[in-house]
Specification:
single chain; mainly alpha; Na+/H+ antiporter like fold; two-stranded antiparallel ribbon; 16 helices; about 0% strand
Length: about 375
């Protein structure tokens, strides 16, 4: 086997993207805690035009990641695992439980304390890292579970963005929100009149991102909204504009955007006192909220929805798959860190303690979910499943 064939296999393997992402996490942590850490931090704050490098990555490039995930979700709604109400409703119920229970756990530990404003921290699921762990599992996880986790994380992130907009945003700029709405109407009209060329969607999509970024709402949601405006069909023979765009985005998202995102967001500097901070009410609220609150909330709300016959389990899955997925949803990371920074503005020490607790909780959740799905889910390899 020659080198070219090895690289072809690497770039077409979802496990490879997960390995690369975790490698970038390790590199970022090492860089942040070496003499190169200061230069690395300066690079992330370097001004590139209107925004810093970090903003371009987290708000700009990640909008493209959300565009890809949104395309996959829409395709599944139209012709795949989410095309029935029972399947499509489950991620919504699960996400609601995965937000309400963790927030309640945090509030229980921190009511009446200086940390109470951080109740939104354990509500978030980091879609990039949770899907990377699933990618590492390959065919050991049913495809429907991967779709369920992606849909759950999308709904979860939408909820987190609404929480930020309502409770953590100093000011909404209504003029930009109006421009955002007008752009969405234009995109919806293009879809209605069956315009198929990508350029007519992507150019307004850039404006959609810009208007949303300036409105006070997290700009990455623009990617999801744009995705749902791209035309698709239920034909198995005709490739739709959505499927063409989805295919074109996989490589740059998996092997450039997500690794760069990991490098930029894992640069946590370890300081004395951080370990002790894990045993404060702040640490308990974040860790128990993400590690236990997520899996409990997702499990309980899913069980209620299925028992009431509103929803059904994803195809070829069982409750052990759901438990493992619930733990993966406890990987809060970027969105949790973002909410922590907003919650404790001007309190750098509290912010650092919160970031460390989020890192620990995300690691515990990710490892636990991985072990459950790999070794205890009941069917270690799904025949015919795609990696």
């Amino acid at each position: 086997m020659n080198l070219t064939t090895y690289f072809q296999k690497f770039f077409h393997s979802s496990q490879s993207s997960g390995i690369l992402l975790l490698l970038c996490v390790a590199i970022s942590l090492i860089l942040a805690n070496t003499p190169a850490g200061e230069a690395f931090g300066d690079l992330l704050q370097f001004q590139l035009g209107a925004y810093t490098t970090s903003v371009w990555i987290n708000d700009g490039l990640m909008a493209i990641f959300f565009l890809l995930v949104g395309l996959e979700i829409k395709r599944e709604i139209v012709e795949g695992e989410l095309s029935s109400f029972k399947n499509a409703s489950l991620p919504i119920f699960a996400a609601l439980g995965g937000m309400i229970v963790p927030a309640g756990i945090f509030a229980f530990f921190n009511a009446g304390t200086a940390y109470v404003n951080g109740w939104g921290i354990p509500m978030a699921t980091d879609i990039a890292f949770s899907l990377a762990i699933v990618a590492l599992l390959g065919s050991r996880v049913p495809p429907a579970i991967k779709i369920f986790l992606a849909a759950l994380a999308i709904v979860d992130d939408l909820g987190a963005i609404l929480v930020i907009a309502i409770f953590y945003t100093d000011q909404l700029h209504w003029n930009y929100l109006l421009l955002t709405a007008i752009t969405l109407v234009l995109l919806a009209a293009l879809n209605y009149f069956k315009v198929t060329r990508h350029i007519y969607y992507l150019v307004p999509g850039v404006f959609l991102w810009y208007f949303m970024h300036h409105s006070g709402i997290h700009a990455t949601i623009a990617g999801v909204l744009l995705a749902f405006c791209i035309p698709t069909n239920s034909s198995e023979t005709e490739i739709s504009p959505l499927e063409k765009l989805e295919h074109g985005l996989h490589l740059p998202v998996n092997f450039f955007i997500m690794p760069l995102f990991a490098l930029a967001n894992t640069n946590i500097i370890f300081k004395s006192g951080m370990v002790e901070g894990l045993f404060s009410t702040l640490g308990y609220g974040i860790i128990l909220g993400l590690v236990l609150g997520k899996v409990l909330g997702i499990g309980i709300f899913s069980a209620i929805a299925i028992k009431a016959k509103f929803s059904s389990l994803p195809a070829e899955s069982n409750w052990r798959h759901m438990i493992g997925t619930g733990f993966l949803a406890g990987i809060g990371f970027t969105m949790s860190i973002f909410i922590a920074l907003l919650s404790y503005k001007g309190h750098v020490e509290i912010q650092e303690e919160a970031k460390f607790a989020i890192l620990v909780a995300s690691a515990v959740s990710g490892i636990t979910g991985f072990i459950i799905l790999k070794y205890f889910s009941g069917n270690n390899r799904i025949s015919g499943a795609k990696n």
